[in-house]
Please model this.
Amino acid sequence: MDVWGSTMVILLFFAGCWVLGLRALKKDGRMREKLGFTFFLGWCVYLFLSKRLGMPPFTPQTANEWLFLPIGRWVESIVIGNVK
Model:
């Protein structure tokens, strides 16, 4: 089986987990739980596909590196007094 075939099998597995999970939550699950489950499973699929396709995944760590660290360095330079 090639890479795309195994990828499709794993995506079908994720889809089956999603259907079974929503069916289990249908009885007594609230909408918030269904949305949380769908978001979590979608995030897992996204991380799987990004690794499989060789794309850099967007995670909380990359958000920290791209957004919060530069802002923190900028604020630190203002506090120290290096920015005019």
